[in-house]
User: Fold this.
Amino acid sequence: MTALHELTITQAGQRLRSGRVRATELAEAAIARAERVDQTVHAFIRVTAERALADAARADAELAAGRDRGPLHGIPYALKDIYDSKDLPTTCHSALTAGHLAAEDSEVERRMKRAGGVLLGKLATHEFALGGPSTDLPYPCARNPWDLERFTGGSSSGCAAALASALVPLAWGSDTSGSIRTPACFCGVVGLKPTFGLVSRRGVFPLSYSLDHCGPMSRTVADAALALEAVAGHDPLDPASARVLARDYTSRLTEGVENRRIGYFRRWLVDTPNVSPAVIERVDHAVEILAANGAEIVEMTGPDLELLNACGRIIMSAESFAIHEDNIRNRPLDFGRYSYQRIAPGASLSAADLILSQRVRRELVRRMEQCLAGLDAAIAATAPSTAPLLSAFWDDWEPASLSHTIGFDVTGHPALAMPVGLTPERLPVGIQVIGHLFDEASVFSIAASLESFLADDMVPSPMTSL
Amino acid sequence: MHSGVDDRRVQDDMLGRLVAAGVQVPAHLVRGVLAGCLDLQRMCTCLRRETVTPEQEPSNVFMFDFAFDSKEYAGPGEGGHDGTA
Assistant:
């Protein structure tokens, strides 16, 4: 029988409702596992054991009384530590936030509580969701459960590490240039960057106002769909929240891909300098599997990757400097080295640079819509390489190579990262499934089909068996 | 390391921009900051190659048109999901 820590949300829900397990048992098992495994993975900044047990006891009592809040009722989850949860510190993995306690819940946390979830704790990030894996911060950086000497990807580093080592079945991350999808890729888990405006960012520490997205991370596509269903929808107090109805994201998960038209941004991958041949092989294989199961594949050149990167990076740099301006000026030594070296350059941009990037952004949205016209969805690699060694990061920060993820933060389209197998070195490779604006249902449907086709290629990380 | 970081003229130009913005970079962080500044300048050059049209002017701050789906608009009083249901 599957161990408690390996249960998906759906499986755990079935056991809860059939009386084979209690929410309290799930929480106790998760707390005990976090105490044991997280000493090496460092996914958590804080395990909220007392609160988790109280929430779980309440969930059990409600189920016993016939009140069922839905699929997340009694399910443990964790939050990237930039999300506010009332009366808990929100550290942002930084010394600059010392002493801060959240006065209110973030909107995601409020909706998770409403859905009956059990908060297990707050997860490691890069400082302010931007810096990088650093040794000069108050908390250790998360380690990749596939190889503890490797980078998790960031900045939702703790989310991916916690999922890949089976510490929780659900985590909430944030994505401004790929911060959900890159760690999902490097750690072999699922992560959704929803359409801009679909999930409230209220109560989540901002990195870049016009690029920030909140989204679920999980071990299966179906679990991410369940989480989105519980939390998506308009928040009148988030200025960027779209006035759309939350949709049904789960009923099409078994629809298959026959006669679906799916684009493939293959040139982005093969034209990347120093791309890993093993990554090309795995991504091509996933696309071939879709074709073998009846999908029509349309290879696309897409909007220019360099232009998407330039637009996103300039907006993010300008907005993040604006957010941290006072501390960059007055408390530079309280930042970690990487965060400072990534935020301060925003001060070198001119107003004209920012305005130009906003104008180009509009054009890029139009071009992406043109690319996706007539398609059900599209596929792109999540990253052109597997997780690098952490030892590559301990010097000054250096500009990264072109991101394959930031483009969809720029254009706002939904993009789900999912694993598609391992390289011969047994490191995960991932793809993105990209959809039309607010069409997460199609994204989940195609991703869930691919997940089932590739089931034999997927294995859990070595940390899962600990 | 990024090309130009060791060029004194480039260093002075970039650090001058930062000082004008009120940012005094601690000495041990200068190289990484300069690398970031130069990368951003390269990206600005990339954007300037684009031809922008009058339609792309960014004055309408009241609507991110790509974030709204008029078919599903459900504002107050129209049966919309206000997050409290």
